[in-house]
Design goal:
With 141 residues, the chain is α+β, with helices and mostly antiparallel strands. The chain has one domain. The protein is 50% helix and 32% strand. The protein contains three helices and five strands, in the order H-H-E-E-E-E-E-H. Strands 3-2-1-4-5 form a five-stranded antiparallel beta sheet. The protein is elongated, with a radius of gyration of 21 Å.
């Protein structure tokens, strides 16, 4: 009977982790590997905001930048500094098409650890609740 709460906790952890990884990668234009490369080997640069667009209830922006004489384009959450303004940028030197605004990168670096912590908390709380129910004899097979 002891293994049931453990299985319930592990299942809850797996489902929560699946949601975090799946939803987290949707918010990042280059997925988890792109974020890793931006954080580990990203180089600072500068981009020019070309226009702003509606992004749900907020605004986003398109930007262009030049690396090694080649033009690249990207997008960012938020429209600050506005069209024509300069935007601080981080790009991967081996693949300059992988880029993000420094603001977006800072947000991802702050929010993602919390996203990975959530499945551990959900799994632990589910295990604790299932264990309490099992000790009271209310856990059914």
């Amino acid at each position: 009977m002891e293994s049931k709460p453990v299985l319930v906790g592990l299942f809850s952890f797996a489902v929560a982790m699946f949601v975090v990884v799946g939803q987290g990668s949707k918010g990042m234009p280059y997925g988890w590997s792109g974020l890793y490369h931006l954080v580990s080997s990203g180089v600072s640069g500068e981009a020019t905001v070309t226009d702003c667009f509606a992004l749900g209830t907020h605004q986003g922006s398109h930007f262009t930048y030049v690396v090694g004489g080649t033009n690249y384009a990207g997008s960012s959450a938020g429209c600050d500094p506005g069209p024509g303004g300069r935007l601080a940028l981080v790009y991967v030197p081996d693949d300059p098409a992988v880029a993000a605004s420094q603001t977006d990168l800072a947000r991802w670096k702050t929010v993602l650890p919390l996203g990975f912590l959530a499945p551990f908390v959900i799994g632990a709380l589910t295990y604790w609740r299932a264990n309490m129910r099992a000790s009271q004899g209310r856990f059914q097979r």
